[in-house]
Amino acid sequence: MRRLWRSMPLRLALVLVVLFGTVSLLSLAASYAFTRAAFEQAIRDDLAQDLAGFRAAPTAGAVALLVQAESEDTDPGRLVLSYVTRSGRIYGNGAVARDDEGFHIISLEEGRATLDGEYLALSARLHGGRLTIARSRAEIEALRPVFFNILWISLLPTVLIALSGGLILARRSERHVEVVRNALEKLSGGDLGARVKTGPRWSDDLLGIGKAVNGMAEAQERSVTALRQVSSDIAHDLKTPVQRVSLRLEALAQVVDDGEAADLVAQTREEVDGIAAVFQALLQLAQVENGALKAQFASVDLADLCRTMVEVYEPTAAARKQRLSFDGPDSLQVDGEKNLLGQMIANLLENALRHTGEGAEICASLQYQYGRPVLSVRDNGPGIPAEELGRVTQRLYRLDRSRNTAGNGLGLSLVEGVARLHGAELSFEDAQPGLCVRIQFPSA
Amino acid sequence: MKILVIEDDVTTGTYIARGLREEGHVVDLVTDGHEGLVAATGGGHDVLIVDRMLPKVDGLTLVKTLRGAGNSTPTLFLTAMGSVEDRIGGLNAGADDYLVKPFAFGELSARVAALGRRPQAVEQETSLQAGDLTLDLLTRKVSREGQEIDLLPREFALLEFLLRRKGRVQTRTMLLEGVWDLSFDPMTNVVETHVSRLRAKVDKPFETELIKTVRGAGYRIDG
């Protein structure tokens, strides 16, 4: 909801509602004032006319008679006629009284109660007496609820429609922006096949952005595909001659007698195998960095895989008088590609075995930390000085490259690549003594 | 066995063909996908060896076409790319096994031999034997010359795997796939260390060697 409040269409709707509401209020207030003034003027004109009618009477007695006659069937709530003669007699259906609060009109019937409501009065001296005619302002006062009703009837639906419309538009535009964002996230995650799927109800500006994103993704995909084609072509072109060399060496090994020549052939075959291994590692690395493999992810039992890998390497460690163990739960499922995860664990274990001496202890462990599966391989070998640990991660790729020899593959680079592909973080810690490599998987 | 090799690189193809012929197989060699499709449809082959990248019709399409037409001849895919994606793609297309270039001939020959035996008859065996060695599948006990040999579970599995494929070479990668279910090749010689451990228990105390090393290929137990 908070995000929704920050959305552009809703803000626009709110601004428009406030603007429209203010303008409507102002114009209603103005027309109320005009109508009120016009009504008042009309009453004043009526009063003047009434007064003029009484002025036509020739004597005070005639005025008194007229007033009396007129007031007999006149509701004092609407019109009050009052004539006070010189002698102080009051004719009519009401009288004007005065106290500290101002003028009041008092009914002459039934106990002289003060009449409620406002009146507009006109008073004049006539034949020695005072004639007062007062007309009720109730009609004018009745305008107020009418105008309030107009206000509610016209403004409320407008505000409601504008607000809900804004809300709907905001929701929709948020959904559309979300679609664009998702596509962009997938693209930056390496899934170059991701596209913005626009709908028929999309606004033109978002449609434009969606099309631009798709155009960019297509261009990127094309160049990556071209690049991949080139690298697989290179691999194919180079692997074929390597294949021939390998097969010829094999044939050669069968015809040479034991001795120096046989040793040379054996050594050369090892070198050729090394070249093939580097090719393999490079291709695998390129593929891991591409991220398209995510489509083939399935549930993998990491605990089971670790146990198998430790078991596979255990005799190798034992032959070098090193101890290799695994500590973890019976089963721990993560989403991933089994062969790559296996290769990653293999590289970690080989790295530990290679960089520690006789009598070293290497322990692979798997556990949950803050709800995230963490795979770590700890050794008690020479390790890496604490101040260099950070730099190792930063320069991992280059460091590993410069150290790369046949058979070594692209060890840690591949570990880093596989970890990244699985959304996991690779870190190095000082195990005091030794090195601890940690791979923190995302929470399931 | 009658084997069809579809490989566009003539040098590699010739070597493969020559090697397989020396092992007593009958080999047809063709150099493009179209010819390969015609030859394979003609039938009569026990195993097909198909290169992934072929002129005219590529290997993947070729295998898919054959499988679509109901031809189920066991097929070994040769791939120069050798990445996980390619492997899955090849196996999905209907290939039975794959081999990454560059490969050793021993590896190819071992895998072709394994493919030629498919599908294996499901034998209700209770024990496996080789020479004077007996492996009891029910009691999971191994004995030789009447002496019981104590094996760890994985050593037992390794021995069982080799015994079940008696007389045929099993390469390092075949052992990794079959015994540990790992479809990649660890860098160091981990398989050798496992085999030498097994040998220390099964072969060393006795006069004759059961587990033979086949140079440049793998291991074999003879019957």
Describe the overall structure.
The complex is a heterodimer of chains A (444) and B (223). Chain A has 444 residues and is α+β, with helices and mostly antiparallel strands. Chain A has three domains: 11-141, no CATH class; 225-290, Helix Hairpins (Orthogonal Bundle); 297-440, Heat Shock Protein 90 (2-Layer Sandwich). Helices cover 59% and strands 18% of the residues of chain A. In chain A, the strands form four sheets. A five-stranded mixed beta sheet of chain A has the order 8-10-11-13-12. In chain A, helix 2 runs antiparallel to helix 4 (138-188). Chain A is rod-shaped, with a radius of gyration of 49 Å. The two termini of chain A are 26 Å apart. Chain B has two domains: 2-116, Rossmann fold; 127-221, Winged helix-like DNA-binding domain superfamily/Winged helix DNA-binding domain (Arc Repressor Mutant, subunit A), CATH 1.10.10. In chain B, strands 2-1-3-4-5 form a five-stranded parallel beta sheet, sandwiched between helices. In chain B, helix 3 links the parallel strand 3 (47-51) and strand 4 (75-79). In chain B, helix 2 runs parallel beside helix 3 (59-68). The chains are: A alpha+beta (444), B alpha/beta (223).
Task: Write the topology of this structure.
The complex is a heterodimer of chains A (444) and B (223).
Chain A: H1 2-5, H2 8-55, H3 60-72, E1 79-84, E2 90-92, E3 94-99, E4 102-107, E5 119-126, E6 129-136, H4 138-188, H5 204-255, H6 260-290, E7 298-301, H7 302-319, E8 323-327, E9 333-336, H8 338-354, E10 361-369, E11 372-379, H9 386-394, H10 396-403, H11 411-421, E12 425-430, E13 435-440
Parallel strand pairs in A: 8-10
Antiparallel strand pairs in A: 1-2, 1-6, 3-4, 5-6, 7-9, 10-11, 11-13, 12-13
Helix pairs in contact in A: 2-4, 4-5, 5-6, 6-11, 7-8, 8-11, 10-11
Chain B: E1 2-6, H1 10-22, E2 26-30, H2 33-42, E3 47-51, H3 59-68, E4 75-79, H4 84-93, E5 97-100, H5 105-116, E6 127-130, E7 133-136, E8 141-144, E9 147-149, H6 153-164, E10 170-171, H7 172-180, H8 190-202, E11 211-214, E12 218-221
Parallel strand pairs in B: 1-2, 1-3, 3-4, 4-5
Antiparallel strand pairs in B: 6-7, 7-8, 8-9, 10-12, 11-12
Helix pairs in contact in B: 2-3
